[in-house]
Amino acid sequence: MMEEAVYDVFARKQRSEPLRHIGYVDATDDALARVYAWKTYDEENWFEMCVVRRSHIIPVNRIDGPYAARATGRLGRHAVEGR
After folding, report:
1. Cα separation of 77 and 12, whole Å?
2. Tens digits of per-residue pLDDT, 10-50?
3. CB hemisphere CA count around 11 (13 angstroms)
4. What are phi and psi for residue 73, nearest 5 degrees?
5. What is the dihedral of CA 28, 17, 82, 71, to 10 degrees?
6. CA 75 from chain center: how many Å?
7. In this structure, which CATH number among 2.60.40, 3.10.20, 3.30.70, 3.10.450 belongs to the domain 1-51?
8. What are the boundaries of each domain within the chain?
């Protein structure tokens, strides 16, 4: 059985907006992560949506910050900014 990885989901509603973190999904591979993200966060009409495997996030200036923790663990299911 393949082990699931955590993928952070980023999206924007308009081309002029920056990508923002909208939550995360668990998936066994990149293709499933794309499908799970699209189906989980389909309540909005997104211009663009991306997934990034959490283990691929590389902290630059903080080894104790939230993304350093995210690179190895989970902070909370579907954490959405601004909601």
Report:
1. 20
2. 999 999 999 999 999 999 999 999 999 999 999 999 999 99
3. 20
4. -145, -170
5. 40
6. 12
7. 3.10.20
8. 1-51
